[in-house]
Amino acid sequence: MPVRVDRTSPVPLYFQAAQHLEQMIESGELPMGTRLDNEADLAGQLGLSKPTMRRAIEYLVGRGLLVRKRGIGTQVVQAKVTREVELTSLYDDLAKAGRAPSTTVVGFGTEPASDLIAGKLGIPAGAPVYVFERLRYADAEPLALMRNHVPEQLMRLSAADLERQGLYTLFRANGIIMRMARQAIGARAATAAEASALGERKGAPLLVMERSAYDEQGRAVEHGHHVYRASRYSFDLTLTGW
């Protein structure tokens, strides 16, 4: 295993080893299902102590990249979806990354916009809006639970449309061109219902994203509240100086 550690670095040895392994998993060099050597053998290959190697493995297990199975050993599980923070849809990003997106619509209907939703969408309170909740999968594994509101006057939507295509693809098909969004990202613990839908335990960490998106005319065209499995998903931001 081509992993090297720098003993002169202030970065802990276990973390260096874990970072190298994580990079190999994310790049596909260690694909899903790969069985790792036992901790003693790995430690010997890297010139590390067994406790140091065990801590590196535990770190990656905690990150959801490795899993320990009785009688089998330590295996690589599906790498996280890393998504740049851009005005794109999750469906498009997964398709671009070759992660086979699919969708189950778990709720769909119309309702009068509440004062809160009306304010987010810039429409009168009580105006009809579509409200729908979708469970998004990547490679047949649940990844995100997404609740959205869309003004009914914008376009005709159906649950079948949303299971076949991403929301932003449907916007484009209706001549709606996205131009900007206001987005907030946070974290919290999963409720029992969210954990059941996403295949996590109750209280597992979730990433939370709330977004209001606008088209080229400046209209708010959707408001979304999405939760993602922190063990399978992360946002990637590029920061620049002035």
Number of helical stretches of at least 4 residues: 8
Average predicted local confidence, pLDDT: 84
Widest sheet: strand ordering? 4-5-6-9-8-7
Main sheet summary: 6 strands, antiparallel
Q: Please bin the fraction of helical residues.
A: 25-40%
Number of strands: 10
Sheet-strand content, in percent, reads 25-35%
Distance between the termini: 41 Å
Helices and strands: which structural class?
alpha+beta
Radius of gyration: 21 Å
* Uncertain segments: none
Write the layout of secondary structure elements.
Blueprint: H1 13-27, H2 39-46, H3 50-62, E1 66-69, E2 73-76, E3 81-84, H4 90-96, E4 101-112, H5 115-121, E5 128-138, E6 141-151, H6 159-164, H7 167-173, E7 178-189, H8 192-198, E8 205-215, E9 220-229, E10 233-236
Parallel strand pairs: 3-10
Antiparallel strand pairs: 1-2, 4-5, 5-6, 6-9, 7-8, 8-9
Quick structural summary:
With 242 residues, this protein is an alpha+beta fold. The protein contains 8 helices and 10 strands.
